[in-house]
Design goal:
Distance between the termini: 40 Å
Number of strands: 11
Order of helices and strands: EEEEEEEEEEE
Largest sheet: 7 strands, mixed
Shape: globular
Radius of gyration: 13 Å
Structural class: mainly beta
Strand content: over 45%
Length: 124
């Protein structure tokens, strides 16, 4: 049973940047993806983006494209979500996730491991 731990959330102002980090207790299969979902109050959990374990190719959902990027460290057990140009509508709990790639295929239902979540609040 792998464990995912997020860090880096907080309260920022609109236009600010924030970097979230996800650390896993082990490495996942090369056919898997690790990524980020977010859930705002009263809304469904949505995919932010993910990175394929094997190729390192990343995917960012359209609403975040151009503002958010995903990267990882060489050991592949630490992943980052860099968020620039934050908007109040980015306010949500951000969850680290891992599951068979692509994570776009089945959304949250396709995720096998979840982190506990970290709160990101963007004030206007």
């Amino acid at each position: 049973q792998e464990e995912l731990v997020e860090s880096g959330g907080g309260l920022v102002q609109a236009g600010d940047s924030l970097r979230l980090t996800c650390t896993s207790s082990g490495r996942f299969l090369s056919s898997w993806g690790t990524g980020w979902f977010r859930q705002a109050p009263g809304k469904d959990r949505e995919l932010v983006g993910y990175i394929r374990q094997g190729s390192g190719v990343t995917y960012i959902s359209d609403p975040m494209k151009g503002r958010f990027t995903i990267s990882r460290e060489n050991a592949k057990t630490t992943m980052h979500l860099q968020m620039n140009g934050l908007k109040p509508e980015d306010t949500a709990i951000y969850y680290c996730a891992a599951g068979p790639a692509p994570l776009t295929a089945n959304g949250p239902r396709g995720v096998k491991y979840w982190g506990q979540g970290t709160q990101v609040t963007v004030s206007s």
